[in-house]
Task: structure prediction
Amino acid sequence: MTTKEEILRLALRFPDSYSDMPFDDNWTVVRHRDNKKIFAWIFERQGRVWVNLKAPPDWRDLWREAYDSVIPAYHLNKEHWNSVILDDSVPEHEIAHMLDLSYTLTEKKRKKVRTR
Result:
């Protein structure tokens, strides 16, 4: 996976997700329709397509150690977000897993139902 179209297609498979271009032509984001939160930041940098994805700390660190092209996020909080440089070194199933987690971490919080 190396193109903006490929990562966008993969990100838009989630229910009620949509793409947006809030800044300029270089940045495309994928958001949840209900809360407008972004779960994928797609952009071009240094001649490559990059995607920033939110990750829980254990997965964040695992991916950073496993793949040279997964690094602390460019332009976002490095504690919560990774940048994935789309250079075909990270298998598509791993990127799909990263997207799944990012989508889940940014979705609307559900109210807890009390039971007696």
